[in-house]
TrEMBL record:
<dbReference type="InterPro" id="IPR054252">
    <property type="entry name" value="Pam3_gp18"/>
</dbReference>
<feature type="domain" description="Cyanophage baseplate Pam3 plug gp18">
    <location>
        <begin position="11"/>
        <end position="104"/>
    </location>
</feature>
<protein>
    <recommendedName>
        <fullName>Cyanophage baseplate Pam3 plug gp18 domain-containing protein</fullName>
    </recommendedName>
</protein>
<dbReference type="Pfam" id="PF22479">
    <property type="entry name" value="Pam3_gp18"/>
</dbReference>
Length: 111
């Protein structure tokens, strides 16, 4: 699947499965990142852990909106969802296909 054109950003897709709640670990720029996703009646939400410490809790997952937003949290780069069929906010049933989770390393080397 082709990643969306988001200007000068170089994106890496983080694989997800279409389930209403999931947790996954991924190494981004030598940092162990855990992502907990859960669908609620009001939308999809994400908790972010960096090297075993929770740094973000219940962040609303919105189409083409940064999740982390601030280097202060210690997460390298930023995460965002991108709708492949329009501009809808993500829901669990399209994760990994219609709704891609993308990481922009901000010029870092994911080594």
């Amino acid at each position: 699947m082709e990643l969306p054109d988001l200007g000068d950003m170089t994106m890496q897709q983080i694989p997800l499965v279409a389930t209403a709640a999931q947790s996954l670990n991924v190494v981004l720029s030598q940092q162990l990142i855990r992502l907990d996703l859960r669908q609620r009646a009001t939308g999809l939400f994400m908790d972010v852990w960096c090297n075993g410490t929770q740094v973000l809790c219940a962040v609303a997952c919105l189409d083409r909106n940064p999740v982390v937003r601030d280097a202060y949290f210690g997460v390298p780069g930023d995460l965002m969802f991108a709708d492949q069929q329009g501009t809808s906010d993500p829901s669990w049933d399209g994760l990994g296909t219609r709704y891609l989770l993308l990481w922009d390393g901000g010029g870092t080397d994911d080594g």
